[in-house]
Amino acid sequence: MAEPKILIVDDELIVIKSAERVLKSEGYSVEGALGGREAILKMGQNSFDLVFTDLKMPEVDGITLIRWIKKTKPDVGIVIITGYPSQDTIKEALELGIIDYVPKPFTPSVLLDVTERAVEWTKGKKPEEAKTAEEFPPAMAAELDRVIAQLKKKPGALIPVLQRAQEIVGYLPPVVQKRIAKGMNIPEAEVHSVVSFYSFFTMKPRGDHNIRVCLGTACYVKGIEGVLKKIQDTLKINVGETTEDRKFSIEAVRCLGACGLAPVMVIDQETYGAMSPKKALEKISQFDPTIIESASAEQAEEMAEKEA
Ligand code: FES
């Protein structure tokens, strides 16, 4: 197969020019498009194997362009170039089926590394990391590598790297720990012992919404046990587990530092005080209204059983 044809899409000419310079120096065939609209026009006239696109662009943005490519030209590989690689953005793009992403501003070596992986994809060979794609997609691996490279020389870098890794991947499975150990040049056992020691690190996947229930003394005295039981029974999971649809996880913590509001529960970053089982369900149901419906259906069933 001839070298793949690459289209670089960005609303900043300087980004297109610098990517072109790097990729052309390695013999790739490259063209640029100043925005999503121009990209669609060019893709109608010529065929490309890979598209590297920015996300934030006026008129036709990157996500719209990706959706269009997936619908009309599903064989074209897509890589995103973004200056804002938040987990949500990456997640959305991954769900649309991108191969990888390049953080902006990029260095020539990162761009070439990602391009090489993307080219492998177009040739039908899965890149090494894709073997574990289910739990650790390549785009997340690239971001993790970037974080490791940025922090590894700093003293005490392991904990900040693990924190960032957990933000990127959502949890720290063995494959992630292994990559960190390799990247930081330290034994895997050292990484594993730090992950197991600190309760804020988790090796199990978390749901989209993490429910932290305080089991500290003040909350316990004010009845958090009943709140926790209600949440567990409703979501049908125990502390440390995630619902099957990956929507919710429950975590138990010792004092959230808001004892005056006891009993306390935190969902994601939001703290809720003076919780009762009913109030807790109401708060959780803002993320999934069916929770209240199924809880009241169960309650009605229970009452009917008692009456019978
Ligand atoms: S004991 Fe629950 S917030 Fe302090």
Report the top-level CATH class of the largest domain: Alpha Beta
Biggest beta sheet summary = 5 strands, parallel
* CATH homologous superfamily annotation of the largest domain: Response regulator
CATH architecture call of the largest domain = 3-Layer(aba) Sandwich
Strand order of the largest sheet: 2-1-3-4-5
**Class from secondary-structure proportions:** alpha/beta
Question: Shape, please?
Answer: elongated
The overall strand count is 9
Bound molecules: FE2/S2 (inorganic) cluster
Unreliable segments of 5+ consecutive residues? 125-134
Taking Cα atoms only, what radius of gyration do you get, to the nearest Å? 24 Å
Give a verbal description of the structure.
With 308 residues, this protein is α/β, with parallel strands linked by helices. It folds into three domains: 5-127, 3-Layer(aba) Sandwich (Rossmann fold), CATH 3.40.50; 141-197, no CATH class; 209-307, 3-Layer(aba) Sandwich (Glutaredoxin). It has 13 helices and nine strands. It has helices spanning 13-25, 36-45, 62-72, 87-95, 108-122, 138-151, 158-169, 174-184, 188-197, 217-221, 224-235, 277-285, 290-307; strands at residues 5-9, 29-33, 50-54, 77-82, 100-103, 209-214, 248-253, 265-267, 270-272. The protein has a five-stranded parallel β-sheet, with helices on both faces. A four-stranded mixed β-sheet has the order 7-6-8-9, covered by helices on one side. α2 (36-45) runs parallel beside α3 (62-72) and α6 (138-151) packs parallel to α8. The protein is elongated. FE2/S2 (inorganic) cluster (FES) binds at residues 214, 216-219, 255-259, 262, 264.
